Amino acid sequence: MSAFADRISAQVLEHHVSLFACVARMQAPTDAEALHDVRINLRRLRSLLKPLRGLPACDYLQGQAAQLGKLTGPVRDLEVLVAELQLKQQAPELIAQRQQRALQDYQQVLQSPQLAALWQALDTWPTQWRMAERDGSLRVIQRKLEPRLLKAQRRLIRAMADPLHDWHDLRLLVKRVRYNAQAYPNIALLNKSSQKALKQAQSALGNWHDLLQWLMLSETEPDLLPCVVTWQTQLQHAEVKAAEALAGLRSKLMSKQ
C-alpha cells in the first residue's frame, strides 16, 4: 500500500479499537465519559472519511458512523444535563429519574442495529480500501483532498463573517474544520494557534448550545423551571464568549489565507 493509504488505514484501525473499548466501558454505568468518548471517536472517524467521499468503502462507513452519532446525540444531551443538575446540587429526584432514563438509553444503544451495522462496516472496510487502491480510484480522490479541506475552511470563514449565520450550523462547521485538521495535519496546514482557536470556539459554542437546549427543554419539563433564571443569565455570558471566540478564530483563519 502507498504511504497515504497506510496512514488512513492505520487511523481507521485506531478508531476501531478505541470505539470497541469505549463501547465496552458503556456497559459499566459508572463510567460517565464512555459515551462521550464514543461520540468523539465517531466524529473523528467521520472527519477522516468524509473528505474521501466518492469511494464506496468510505461513504458507507462514514454513513454508518453518522447513524450511530445521530442515535447517541440525545443520550449525550441527557447525560450532560444530569451532570449540570448535579453540579447545581438540584433536588435528588430531579436527577435520579434522568439518570435512570440515561441508563436505559445506554442499553438501547448497546443493542441497537446502528451499532451492529457500524461493527460490520468496520470489519469489511480494510478489504474495500485495498480494492480502491488497486483499481486506482483512491488516487483520484486523493487529488481532491486538499481542495475539499480548503473549501471547508473558506466556508467557515464566510459563515463567521455573516452576522445572521445560524450558530448551530457554525458549531458544526467549526467541528468539521477542527477534526479535518487533526486527521490531515499535513494537508489542512493549520498552525497550533489556529487549532487552539478552533478548540476554543467549539467549546464556547458548545456551552451556548447546551444552555439553549436546557432552556428549551424547561418549556416541556416543568421540574426544570427552578434552573431557568440561572441558565438565562449564563446564556447571556455564553453568547458573549462565543462571539469573542468566533472573532478570534476568524482572525486566525483569515491570516492563513
How many domains make up the 3D coordinates? 2
The span between the termini is 33 Å
Low-confidence stretches: none
Structural class, please? Answer: mainly alpha
Task: Specify the overall morphology.
Answer: flat
User: What percentage of amino acids are in beta strands?
Assistant: under 5%
Defining traits:
2 domains; Four Helix Bundle (Hemerythrin (Met), subunit A); mainly alpha; 10 helices; 257 residues
Description:
By secondary structure, this protein is mostly helical. It has two domains: 1-135, Four Helix Bundle (Hemerythrin (Met), subunit A); 145-257, Four Helix Bundle (Hemerythrin (Met), subunit A) (Up-down Bundle). Helices cover 84% and strands 0% of the residues. The protein has helices spanning 3-26, 34-49, 56-87, 92-110, 113-134, 137-161, 167-183, 185-188, 192-218, 228-256. It starts with a helix and ends with a helix.
Question: How are the SSEs placed, and which strands pair?
Answer:
Blueprint: H1 3-26, H2 34-49, H3 56-87, H4 92-110, H5 113-134, H6 137-161, H7 167-183, H8 185-188, H9 192-218, H10 228-256
Compact description:
With 257 residues, this protein is mainly alpha-helical. It is built from ten helices and no strands.
